[in-house]
Amino acid sequence: MIGTNIATTVPKKFVIMQRTDNIRQVFLATLLAVLLPHAARCQEPLTLDSCRRLAAAQNFKLQAARENEEIDKNLVRAARTLYLPRIDFAGGWYYMGQKDVIPNPNDQFLPIVPYQAIDQSTGTLNPNFFKENPVAALQSLVIDMSKLEPMLDRNGNPMFKQYAYLPGNKLVLEPKHLWMMGFVVRQPIFTGLKIVAANKMAEATGSIEHSKAKLTEAEVIEKCDEDYWRVLSLQEKCKLATQYEELIAQLESDVQNLLDEGMATRNDLLKVQTKHNEARMKQLRASNGQTLARMALAQTLGIRMNQAVVSGAGLDSMALANAPLSYDSVDSDRPEVAMLRGKQQMLEAALMMTNSAYMPEVYLFGQYSWKYPNPYDGMTKTFGGDWSVGVTFRWSILTWGDRIYKTRIARLKLAQTEAELNDAESLVALQQMEKTNHLAEAHEHIDFATEAANQANENLENVKASYAEGASNLRDVLEAQTLWQEAQQELLDAKLEAANARIALSRAYGQLSAPTVPTKQ
Questions:
Q1: Does pTM top 0.90 for this prediction?
Q2: Could you tell me which residues are beta bridge partners of residue 183?
Q3: Cβ(411)–Cβ(218) below 8 Å
């Protein structure tokens, strides 16, 4: 009973607030369950392959290059439509102004013809009427009494006794508003190869933009690889700086103990402390360098800086052992060379376009138009339509040498591009040999640096053991530690140099491209 009484005394407002808090907690737990795995995935260490895929999908410079390539693809599609007929709808409205339109300024004499002489079905004069009605002929026609036949005018028409006089300046077009509209179809038959040249120029332009996109891809992937390896190298340099700082700190502790026991001087401790400060400064510089390298990598990948976390497990692969690169052909697929070849094709098409000015142009056209007022029904206030077909022909005869000069310019530009292409191919071959030699030197540098690092490590161990036995002084230990740190850093620099040399060699042979990225639907 007591429990029941307490439960019944709880306010309803408190119950509602408690349920709201429970719902909020459930919602927050669900939201965290969804977001935490995503956040964990964002912090997963990046590999070289994942970096390349991110750069291929999210790098802003590469996205702009691909959009530009897509623009030129549409230009090629637009150029192909020039072969097809064009259908236009055109119309217009005209106001005739204040002056009257006089179709015939001459005075008109219209014969007065009996109503019965008009054929009602055709609206023309019935000549048999006067033969069948002599009385009407005598009343309306001028009769040659010698021949008893109607007199004829110079045009062979019968002469009437009465005519209606219509002044020519009084015969004007009544409508002031004229309307015209209709469909026009134009089909090129022969344009002097202008359309063919335009399509070739569009395709060559598209090829150039494709090569530009490939060049941008190579630049982005090269920078991505360099930034990736630099981050790994600086991570190792941070570890090296930490190890060096720990060595100096341990030495400082040992010297402090010796000083307390009276076996070392205050000057010895100050020397070690100075080296310790230098080690801390190196550690700080390595940390700052790593932060800047991560920022550069994040900018290349198009991600936030806190997501640019790479794994240091693959640092030794920077040296890539000493596996030689094998390239079967010196003829590379360099985008720079492909761009010059595309430029050469475009100038060849431009030369064809220039030569087409010497040729005629033939078009077939057809139209159906409506006019108001209706010229086919006595200019009545209705729309009248009719169709027409035809062929247009144009051939320029005299241009005062304009075509000759333009042809010379096109040929000179083509010859200039051919010279640039030959020069570029020779430079590419020279660059390939240079990058090959650079990679071989980098491998030798790794061998020398590895041997020097092993020697420095052995020397440090020997000096430390000798110092512990009192056979070496403090200066020898500090010098051995410095040599060890410099040798390890030199080895890291050699590995980074080898990785960059291999990237540069792949770039020189045109084998550095972005991985395939799924297109957006």
A1: no
A2: 89, 368
A3: no
